[in-house]
Design brief:
17 strands, 8 helices, alpha+beta, elongated, 7-stranded mixed beta sheet, about 25% strand
Length: about 300
């Protein structure tokens, strides 16, 4: 079966590899254009584009699937399109090109967390279980009928990056299985059922820590925005980046945002009990162990994160 693969970030690469291992004829890859990366803003191919180049697969770069891109897709004559985190909408003319449609691998248990950041939102919300589904892409936001489902436990220490890494590999297997079922005529999609929740793309403000929230909520937010867009707070008007914090069962009584060096641990007050910082990146400096940062302060007395 001839497959068009659409995807952009590193989490989509395992799916491309899985389809090739399963013997599918991946005739082209649709991905976002090269993007500026790093401090020097060097134009860099997406991880999917780089992998496709290694494999010798034709790459269609497109920020938007317009008439010209649709014509290029039609020219490779795919029987089906597989899409994993492409990063753009697929309009009706392009949806109609493959005879089996577009099969989307989405990293949530739809209809929960429809949108661009399902894993991040699940971690922030404190979900115990999440997963991935394959579904038939429609013009609505992640509304199509579901072919296959897998579940994944959210571990207490999971960051969004950790969880997404696991789902990218298990989901790749699910995607290959779904396309195999479609090819053999065994696939059956069922309508989504259950409560709908939305997972809009995260912005910088989603990473800001509100120290008046309970410690549990702060821990979830810090893990949910790691690695992107990252957790942060402010100190004397300057942004300070944070890695995930450690929840403490108990600790000294501190005001929200108040910092204390307790032995080798750096504690910060919250709306409930303190949390322990792990690593911190002050403005203009590199990421460092929180204890090293604390020892470099003239005095922690009076230091309060805002």
């Amino acid at each position: 079966m001839r497959v068009l693969f659409a995807g952009t970030p590193a989490v989509a690469v395992p799916s491309l590899d899985a389809l090739l291992r399963a013997g599918f004829d991946v005739v082209a890859v649709l991905t976002r254009p090269d993007a500026p990366i790093g401090r020097k803003r060097v134009l860099t191919p997406s991880p999917v584009a780089a992998r496709a180049a290694e494999l010798g697969i034709e790459v269609i770069h497109a920020a938007k699937v317009d008439a010209d891109v649709t014509a290029r897709i039609a020219a490779v004559a795919p029987d089906v399109a597989a899409i994993v985190a492409y990063g753009g909408l697929i309009p009706r003319p392009a949806l109609d090109v493959p005879r089996h449609g577009w099969i989307n691998l989405h990293f949530s248990l739809l209809p929960a967390w429809r949108g661009a950041a399902p894993v991040q939102r699940a971690v922030i919300a404190g979900d115990d279980i999440t997963g991935a589904v394959t579904f038939l892409l429609e013009e609505g936001l992640d509304t199509g009928p579901v072919f296959g489902t897998l579940t994944e436990a959210v571990r207490p220490e999971d960051t969004a990056g950790d969880l997404l890494e696991r789902l990218s590999h298990s989901g790749a297997v699910l995607l290959a299985q779904t396309l195999s079922a479609i090819e053999s005529g065994r696939a059956a999609a069922v309508p989504q059922a259950g409560d709908v929740s939305l997972a809009p793309k995260l912005g910088i403000d989603d990473g800001r820590i509100d120290w008046h929230e309970p410690a549990l909520a702060i821990g979830r937010r810090a893990r949910g925005v790691t690695p992107e867009p990252g957790a942060w707070t402010t100190l004397e008007g300057q942004r300070v980046k944070l890695e995930p914090v450690v929840l403490r069962a108990e600790g000294p009584e501190l005001k929200p945002g108040q910092v204390l060096l307790d032995g080798k641990s750096v504690l910060v007050g919250t709306g409930s009990h303190p949390v322990e910082l792990t690593r911190i990146q002050p403005s203009g400096k590199k990421m460092m162990a929180a204890a090293d940062w604390a020892r470099g302060q003239a005095a922690l007395e009076g230091v309060v994160f805002e």
